[in-house]
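Page 42, continued from yesterday. The earlier attempt failed because a stray header line got pasted into the input along with the sequence. Redoing it now with the clean sequence only.
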Amino acid sequence: MEKVVQFLQELSENNNKEWFHANRKRYEENRDKVLFITEVLINEIRKWDKDIPVMNPKDCMFRIFRDVRFSKDKQPYKTNFGSFIARGGRKSMNAGYYFHIEPEGSFIGGGIYTPPAEPLKAVRTYVAKHAEEFLDIINDKEFKQIYPEMYDHKLKTAPKGFPKDHEYIHLLRYKSFVFSTNLKKDVLLGENFVEHIVKAFRQLYKVNTFLNSALDKNM
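This time it went through. Structure tokens are written below.
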């Protein structure tokens, strides 16, 4: 992974079309490495999560090209590689597994990130009815060792359709149901980084199953 990280570091320092075009072969070589890792991870996840089908890794990996039409930041390229492994691929609203490679900000995680209104309501409705089951999953000792808390992205008040005095309103206020953990550079560049990611992903299985049940039963 050292060459992948080195390429991304140089891209962050030369984020322009001229440099990218001159280094396009390097980009393609490093993209192919990440696609290979994505395929390995798909196969590993399928050993325990039968919700994940046989998939083309290209359907999971995000494009490196940025949409700058409505952004003040006009840099044309992302400075990371990322893949989201879920039923339906990266465009899916299903819960899944994500890994993100960036020189100073690599991480792994999963769940459902900023879903649209309908699936978000479906998850909140399910959590409201099965809050204790959800809390048992995310408070499990082994789970919390890797994912100590949920991504702090929530409303300041109760979401529409839910009472403010609901016993578990602190859970229903979340706008994302996501968990993540940093991927240290020494681990990323080590020989066993895939095993490290697989171990972390394994702990997400129950929470992803719970969240996908919410979608399946309320959509």
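Notes: The beta strands are 81-85, 96-101, 107-112, 177-182.
Reminder to self: strip header lines before submitting.
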